[in-house]
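Q: Given only this backbone (851 positions), what sequence would you predict?
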């Protein structure tokens, strides 16, 4: 509603009333019958009247036109924050918004906010529409904190002034507010307000009805973890155009710990998102975090509040709804033990609450002291401290202060040296936006010999001397690879680095300056090299035509356009072909008939539980498609992957008979689904096998076509620990260098016999086929895909066979890129693991199983 504003009213000038000199006298009938003489109007005056009337009409018309067309429009603005009230004592009744106490105090607070704060500032009261209380919590010294929301309706041209005035309501911190007029003053019945914050509400939320809903009031309890979830989760997607909030409280002197184990929202944060606040009101000044998209394996979404309240909000727009989230909350003591102290002998120190994100509003100080004469070296294995994008250099918000302030993201093994035997380390976080924090270790070193027996990198890291000039960036800053003279097995890059010779022409720019990818029979600059070796003009890539003849110029386009079908274009159910790379289940409808997004109940973890086990052990429920195949006599033998409630994919070599065992017979097998620890099979779902279909062209010499299907004797119920992985279409491209996950209970080292008790996970990278073939003595067929870490140490091993190589695609969904097949030993340098390339078998799997 457009309300009239005092002081801005416009009174159009009206012609003077009553007698005016020069008017003609007229005689009007009088009650006593006497005739009054009428005066005649002179001509000049008549002209003047007409002119004046025209001017008035023009003026009024002008004003109306200005009013409706040019006058600045009004903007609805929401502000929010809290008031600290010292004149009342907190009681449980103030948590229940139906209680009389709550209602009375809420009315008083809203009134006094207007009269004592906005009205004192003449400006603000003029634009104020309404204020309401969102909740109360106990303040320090028994007082009460009232969380409020105020609505303003401001002319666009006054917006910045009003915003400035509202933002200033907090300047100087809470206590400085006491001296402001209307605050800290006690009149007869009024509240004593000793502190106040005020900040804008996210404009997207402000457009919604921000009313608190009763069933969303949660209270954390001692030694207990409770949960809440987005509407419909996990059975259905969340609704469109939603705003929901959950207020969480804890006992005094406690913080709230919040952990999202599932988060699967639209990936564009402008459309759907959650926000967590360090308050009961949605003020931007106290946002702890904003999240959208999907939580990837290994990502920790654990947050701590600074006090005993927290607010979680969910916003969704009109389009595209996703499964949503589930979160666990509990209370933890307010005092965090990792916050500061005296450190001497050497050891570790972490940000408060680590591995949770650190809480807002905290300051910790550590004093490090090592023996006299020695210096201090601090190495961070994790470093992620929130810094505003535009000002990462001066770290104005959150920082760790060593010699100077540091913030932002640092790679693992970042080292700082301090030239003294004493150091004070300070960690500071402000009232909003938190990071994952840091985990550091410190040690004393001899200044004359900082890396005894090792090579000292420019960044002060010490690495083994035989890692110098080996072609790998072991220091992290390349300093171990500079100034090297290359040996026979290496090529010399133009920039001076030496790289393994077999890395040349593998499609990856290993030198950094492309030397290793030059002269590889590729097309000249400004041409596109087709997969079939043809050269086409670069402009022809992604133009909708199959210029290469094999479709490769249309297979990796960012946007989907309908193209002529080829072996590498994605085919929709309606037989249309589209050009986009890997469009299936990427969260965007690319096919006109929507078939690319129709069958996507796969590849995400629907309900994973929250327990985290250290090292490389997986979390429970982290890989719900992972299966353990036991035989009745040997226990765990192979892995497999769930692809539907009836079918598993495994390796053909797992189901081949030998002299001793009849592995090809279904009754030999026991299938454990949802298993985490081998000794806890009773917790898993046990199934028998009805049918085994080994690939008809499996070759036991070359391991070509090493894939098999197993049908369960009865459907398994899909649940938090049992869930299918997505199968990639034949055109799906897992690019060289992509990081993928391998999982299994296989041997932890080549030379030991026993299998791993807890499901293991490891991250490896896809390796170029030509490179892999060279490394593996030409044993790689087009139906195999290699992955590993060429420096060795990370790999699949015996017992992992048949299990998944899982690849997180665009929107975080997991696809079965490979099946663990073979290798030369385990974890050897330059001997990657070999996997069955699942894209080659997509149609066969569909034919055999209907999946
Ligand atoms: C095996 O024996 C096996 N390093 C599986 C994978 C690898 C090696 C051996 C890969 O089942």
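A: Predicted residues:
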């Amino acid at each position: 509603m457009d309300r009239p504003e005092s002081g801005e009213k416009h009174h159009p000038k009206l012609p003077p009333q009553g007698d005016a000199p020069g008017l003609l006298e007229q005689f009007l009938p009088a009650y006593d019958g006497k005739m009054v003489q009428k005066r005649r109007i002179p001509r000049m005056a008549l002209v003047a009247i007409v002119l004046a009337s025209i001017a008035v009409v023009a003026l009024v018309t002008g004003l109306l036109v200005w009013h409706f067309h040019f006058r600045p429009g009004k903007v609805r603005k929401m502000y929010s924050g809290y008031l600290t009230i010292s004149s009342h004592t907190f009681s449980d009744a103030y948590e229940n918004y139906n209680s009389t106490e709550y209602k009375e105090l809420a009315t008083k607070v809203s009134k006094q906010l207007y009269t004592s704060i906005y009205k004192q500032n003449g400006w603000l009261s003029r634009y104020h529409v309404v204020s309401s209380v969102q909740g109360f919590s106990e303040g320090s010294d028994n007082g009460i904190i009232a969380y409020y929301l105020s609505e303003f309706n401001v002319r666009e041209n006054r917006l910045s002034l009003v915003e400035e005035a509202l933002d200033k309501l907090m300047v100087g911190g809470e206590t400085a507010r006491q001296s402001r007029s209307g605050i800290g003053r006690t009149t007869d019945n009024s509240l004593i307000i000793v502190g106040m914050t005020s900040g804008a509400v996210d404009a997207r939320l402000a457009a919604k009805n921000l009313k608190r809903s009763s069933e969303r009031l949660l209270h954390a309890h001692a030694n207990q973890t409770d949960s809440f979830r987005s509407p419909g989760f996990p059975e259905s997607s969340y609704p469109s155009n939603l705003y929901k909030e959950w207020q969480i409280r804890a006992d005094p002197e406690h913080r709230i710990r919040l952990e999202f184990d599932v988060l699967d929202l639209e990936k564009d944060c402008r459309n759907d998102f959650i926000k967590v606040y360090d308050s009961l009101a949605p003020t931007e000044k106290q946002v702890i975090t904003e999240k959208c998209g999907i939580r990837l394996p290994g990502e920790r979404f654990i947050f701590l509040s600074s006090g005993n309240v927290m607010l979680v909000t969910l916003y969704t727009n009109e389009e595209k709804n996703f499964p949503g989230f589930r979160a666990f909350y509990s209370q933890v003591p307010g005092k965090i033990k990792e916050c500061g102290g005296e450190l001497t002998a050497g050891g570790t120190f972490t940000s408060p609450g680590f591995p949770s994100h650190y809480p807002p509003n905290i300051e910790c100080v550590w004093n490090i002291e090592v023996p006299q004469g020695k210096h201090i070296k601090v190495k961070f294995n994790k470093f992620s401290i929130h810094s505003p994008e535009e000002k990462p250099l001066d770290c104005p918000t959150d920082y760790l202060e060593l010699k100077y302030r540091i913030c932002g993201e640092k790679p693992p093994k970042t080292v700082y040296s301090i030239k003294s035997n004493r150091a004070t380390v300070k960690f500071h976080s402000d009232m909003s936006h938190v990071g994952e924090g840091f985990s550091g270790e410190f040690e004393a070193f001899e200044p004359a010999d900082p890396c005894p027996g090792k090579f000292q990198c420019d960044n002060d890291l010490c690495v083994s001397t035989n890692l110098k000039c080996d072609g790998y960036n072991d220091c992290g800053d390349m300093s171990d690879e500079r100034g090297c003279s290359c040996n026979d097995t290496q090529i010399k890059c133009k920039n001076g680095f030496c790289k393994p010779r077999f890395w040349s022409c593998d499609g990856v720019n290993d030198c950094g300056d492309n030397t290793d990818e030059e002269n590889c029979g590729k097309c000249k600059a400004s041409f596109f090299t087709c997969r079939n070796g043809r050269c086409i003009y670069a402009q022809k890539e992604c133009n909708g035509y199959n210029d290469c003849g094999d479709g490769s110029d249309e297979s990796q386009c960012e946007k989907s356009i309908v193209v002529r079908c080829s072996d590498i274009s994605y085919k929709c159910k309606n037989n249309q072909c589209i050009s986009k790379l890997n469009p299936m289940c990427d969260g965007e409808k690319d096919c006109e008939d929507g078939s690319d997004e129709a069958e996507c109940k796969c590849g995400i973890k629907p309900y994973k539980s929250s327990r985290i086990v250290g090292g490389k052990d997986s979390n429970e429920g982290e890989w719900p498609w992972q299966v353990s195949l036991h035989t009745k006599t040997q226990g765990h033998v192979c892995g497999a992957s769930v692809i539907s409630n009836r079918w598993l994919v495994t390796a053909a070599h797992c189901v081949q008979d030998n002299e001793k065992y009849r592995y090809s017979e279904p009754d030999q097998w026991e299938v454990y689904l949802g298993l985490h620890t081998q000794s806890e099979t009773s917790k898993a779902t046990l199934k028998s096998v009805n049918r085994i279909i080994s690939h008809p062209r499996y070759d036991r010499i070359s391991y070509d076509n090493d894939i098999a299907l197993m049908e369960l004797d009865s459907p398994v119920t899909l649940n938090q620990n049992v869930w299918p992985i997505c199968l990639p279409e034949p055109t799906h491209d897992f690019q060289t260098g992509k990081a993928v996950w391998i999982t299994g209970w296989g041997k932890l080292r080549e030379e030991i016999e026993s299998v791993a008790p807890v499901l293991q996970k490891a991250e490896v990278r896809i390796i170029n086929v030509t490179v892999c073939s060279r490394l593996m003595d030409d044993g790689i067929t087009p139906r195999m895909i290699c992955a590993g870490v060429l420096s060795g140490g990370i790999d699949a091993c015996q017992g992992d066979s048949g299990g998944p190589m899982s690849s997180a695609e665009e929107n975080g969904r997991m696809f079965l890129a490979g099946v663990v097949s073979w290798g030369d030993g385990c974890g050897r340098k330059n001997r990657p693991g070999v996997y069955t390339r699942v894209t080659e078998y997509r149609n066969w799997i569909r034919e055999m199983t209907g999946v």
